[in-house]
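Researcher: Going back to the complex we discussed earlier. I've cleaned up the inputs and rechecked each line, so this should be the final set. Can you rerun the prediction on the complete assembly and write out the structure?
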Amino acid sequence: MATRWGICSAGKISQDFAVALKTLPSADHQIVAVAARKLDDAQEFATKHGASRAYGSYEELARDPDVDVVYVGVIHPHHLKTCLLFINAKKNVLCEKPLAMNAREVKEILDAAKRNNVFLMEAVWTRFFPASEEIRRLLARGEVGEVKVVRSEFAVPLMHVPRAVQKELGGGAMLDVGIYCLQFTSMVYNGEKPESIQATGVCFESGVDETVVVTLKYPGSRLAVFTCSAGVQLPNEAVIAGTKGTIKVPYPMWCPTSLVVNGKETQYPLPEPSMPLNFLNSTGMRYEAEEVRQCLLRGLKESAIMSHTDSLLLAEVEDEVRRQVGVVYTQDCQ
Ligand SMILES: NC(=O)c1ccc[n+]([C@@H]2O[C@H](COP(=O)([O-])OP(=O)(O)OC[C@H]3O[C@@H](n4cnc5c(N)ncnc54)[C@H](OP(=O)(O)O)[C@@H]3O)[C@@H](O)[C@H]2O)c1
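Model: Rerun complete. Updated structure for the full complex:
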């Protein structure tokens, strides 16, 4: 039986997620319903992506008995209340990154998912790319020896995107793009907690972080360094340096289609989209969607590849980085 998706919000990433789902067999994945704050937006989305039902409120989607799992694509200050709405209605949830604004909110979502016995995953799509699977395989068999340094960067000028710069919309480089560097580091170091975190950064006038440089130290003299920015462009690559070699993730490191392992390059091409995308390589969201399907088929409540503990660790490090840089959201004061 197909996994029946409900889509929450008709925004940019939801549009791309719907296109990504269409690269998978329709016998496995179907969009049955979409909800947006305005019914017109939902209807337009439903027509474009072949959803049979369109709702003008998220509550109606939460009540739809034919929806197995909801993809939450609203902006991140609204992740907490939107996730709680669906989770408390006993819906499984795949929520866009960052799962919430801070660790307190993330814990609230995770607790609700456990209480309601539903599946929940933060949509860290990168982890499910074939290139990322290959990185995990290479590390597990010690291809580059012991990893000593992980370096990554994700920096793009986003000054023209209101949700990337305005504080009340959840703006800031760490939560928008830095999370990709952090999740990469955390994946390579197997979800270990860093023993120290050092962050320095500069902020937009709005008070959210424009550019941040973070150094993480892990037990056993292992390091990671990343740069994220919503103000400038960097090459946006990543490197894993071990005692026996290196793995390089060329641009774009957050949605990789190639790897260079000890100098040898391999391509991991993505399927072509059936319609224009808002973001680069978005058909790669098909892999996280398939992970959700496989977890649901097996009755799992979380993914082993992007677990609840993983989401909490990301949020805790993000909180500490923001504390050191001096970025405070209203959600931090509640
Ligand atoms: N995985 C990725 O590669 C990727 C890429 C981009 C973004 N994202 C994540 O996806 C989320 C959405 O990003 P986006 O670029 O799609 O954003 P967007 O198009 O600006 O907004 C998404 C939706 O959020 C709701 N929304 C927007 N502004 C709102 C407001 N002021 N109050 C209440 N609701 C509001 C709207 O829902 P309605 O349609 O219901 O009105 C809107 O369609 C973010 O958390 C972001 O971090 C992920």
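Model: Worth noting: The chain has ten helices and 14 strands.
Researcher: Good, that matches what I expected from the previous run.
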